[in-house]
Write a structure and sequence with these properties.
This protein has 220 residues and is an alpha/beta fold. It has 2 helices and 26 strands. Strand 23 and strand 24 form a beta hairpin. The longest helix has 16 residues.
Amino acid sequence: MNYWKDIKEWDQSPATTINGTRYTSSTGWWVAIGNSASIGNSASIGNGASIGNGASIGNNARIGSYASIGNGASIGNGASIGNNARIGSYARIGDDASIGNYAKIGNGARIGDDARIGNGASIGNGASIGDGASIGNSARIGNGASIGETPAYLWPPAGQWPVYVSDPAKRMLGIGCEIHHIDYWLGNGAAEVREKHGVPETADIYDPAIKYIAHAMGWA
């Protein structure tokens, strides 16, 4: 098929199955399928979506309306790509992963199996998000970042405790065993934790890490 081809010839009732993929039929409905792209069994592709050259869509995957899948990208079995989401060229979306509406996944990025990327979130080029990780709505993860399946993001030099995002959707940030809302940490939280645990260098060491994560997650 030709890229950006308006395939209205398949817009008929009942819906037609093409190469194992069921396309929902409606007036004026169309999708764009690139050259050498592959579509798995029982996958669904929404109106106005585009699938790039050489891209691969897994079995039972769902591609939302007006979503864009870049050239050579791979969408895993059972994965869900939200409406108007953008998946960069040669990005990999794992099995059963969920990408929110209007989310943007950079070129060559890797999203693990069962990972959750929130609505409007942005994952940079070449970034890696581990299996089962959860990134909140409107979060911003930079180019080349690596976030594992555990929630730890940073371990500041000379710091005694890891800094991690505990619940992205609720903007909860943890330092060691203390988990609080990001506003607490951006206020006087680090100093209070320093005094509570008797670690005098905590505030000075962790303040840059807190601000970095707040910025990366789009919280500040």
